[in-house]
Amino acid sequence: MAEATPQTEQPELKRAIGPKLLLFFVVGDILGTGIYALTGNVAGKIGGALWLPFLLAFVVAFLTAFSYLELVGKYPKAAGAALYTNRAFKIHFLTFMVAFAVMCSGITSASSAALAFGRTYLRQLLVEFFDVTLRPESLVITGIAIVFIAALAIINFRGVSESVKANVVLTCIELSGLVIIIAIGAYAIAVGDGEPSRLTEIHVPSGSSVLLAVTSATALAFFAMVGFEDSVNMAEECRDPVRIFPRAMLVGMAIAAAIYVMVGITSSLLIPSDELAKAGSSALLKVVTVGAPGFPLWIFALIGLLAVINSALINMLMASRLLYGMANERIIPRFFGTVHPFRRTPWISIVFTTGVAVILVSTADIGKLGGTTSLLLLIVFTIVNVACLVLRREKAEHKHFRAPTWAPVLGAITCAYLAMPVLSGRPWDDYKIAGWLLLAGLVLWVINRVAHGKVESHPERLGK
Questions:
Q1: How far apart, in whole angstroms, are the C-alpha atoms of residue 39 and residue 224?
Q2: Which stretches does DSSP call E strand in 306-457?
Q3: Is there a contact between 82 and 462 (Cβ–Cβ < 8 Å)?
Q4: CA-CA-CA-CA torsion for 304, 184, 136, 303, nearest 10 degrees?
């Protein structure tokens, strides 16, 4: 039986994050590709009641946040779902699959951002400055998305030291774009524009039901709410995380949800849902065009571009780092843990995650990638909610946040519901993409198991 080689003693991470910076981190991690790229896709599933799926997605995420808060208070380590799964169930394979699913969600999220980069915001800037019009599905646009992924890989390879203070700046940029949309909506209401009756319209496809239409839209809109769970990986860099996490996470999620609901209301007030759906990832650009014809569209396109770049870079960094961590802990072949001798970055993991992203960008659209991201994380969140209940048997020696029991119970039920086929109305393509990704993980796990036998894992070190 092989065991992971013990790591040399390292100094503790610097605890530099206070409550305000943590709040900005939570808001910034949630805002991004989801709302900037998928508003039109969600409108196509629900109709004029576009605000409703975002509100329901917030409720489901909010319930799960209680479980994360209890667990990060109990185990303030930078490992998140993998650590909680391992402590609760002590099943090596399940721990690995949870960690691999989180990694895959980062790749699918970054891939959707790459498509939004090429097909929407860069394409709009080409029109504004060079009068060059390209079809969203053209090979040139797909090529641009692939080049974008490759550029992220180069940045990742060179080594990127992310600062939460820089995150504050990027968050403000992302937020400014959404504030522009909300301001346009407020102006439209003030001058009597828009059609309020659309806000209650729910389009029910033939042979479907209102419930299925709402849950299908919510399952996709959930992609816009993910990101809050990443903040638990900052636990070891926060001052007094047990005290500051609950308020920062819950307030940050509420701020993001309020922004999303107002953006949804504005979009439906100004534009019929069929036109939003037809616009796809360009829906917010259309809202600006219709609601504020005199506003320089290139400004909003540039803001959107920066928003998706930030989301993609964070997710690709997370994915490659987590894959490296799994290799370093010998739960996948050690080959993936190879570090470049000069750049000191995990270049094999970077190449692998970049290759997967290129395949996804070449074969799937934004809606499928967003849906796959939400599916993977809904499965992970279901497990985390159950783990929270199981770990009630372990008592911590320090005081920490304790979620009301109904929160993880309802969180597990709602997450499982939105992840289930048929019940959620989720397209089968989401399951196919997720299935292929997890199958790749299974292959890596089997190869490693055959080569090294059972390995003692340390999930708390996966992100290091």
A1: 9
A2: none
A3: yes
A4: -10
